[in-house]
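Dear H.,

Thanks for agreeing to be a second pair of eyes. The structure we're designing against is below in C-alpha cell form, covering all 80 positions.
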C-alpha cells in the first residue's frame, strides 16, 4: 500500500466543490482537509502497490473541475 498526499490549488470560489467532487468520485481518497497557505486542499490517498502514482494524479485529481494546480508528496514510512 502506498500513501500519497496531494496538495491542491483550486480556482477561486471552487474549494468546496472540488473537495465534494473528489470525495464522491475518487475511490482511493481517504481524507480531504482544507488548508491555508499556497494550496487550498490536502488530499490523503491510499494506492495499491501496483498503481501508477503519476497516472492516478493526472487522471483522477488534476482532471477534477476547478483544480488549478497540484503538488504531490510521496511517503515512505508512517511513524505512529
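And this is the sequence the design step returned. I haven't edited it by hand at all.
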Amino acid at each position: 500500500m502506498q500513501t500519497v498526499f496531494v496538495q491542491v490549488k483550486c480556482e477561486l470560489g471552487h474549494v468546496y466543490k472540488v473537495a465534494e467532487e473528489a470525495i464522491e468520485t475518487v475511490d482511493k481518497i481517504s481524507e480531504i482537509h482544507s488548508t491555508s497557505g499556497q494550496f487550498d486542499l490536502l488530499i490523503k490517498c491510499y494506492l495499491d502497490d501496483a498503481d501508477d502514482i503519476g497516472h492516478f494524479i493526472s487522471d483522477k485529481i488534476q482532471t477534477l473541475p476547478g483544480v488549478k494546480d497540484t503538488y504531490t508528496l510521496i511517503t515512505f514510512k508512517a511513524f505512529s
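Two observations from my side: The mean pLDDT is 97. The chain has one domain: 2-74.

Warmly,
E.
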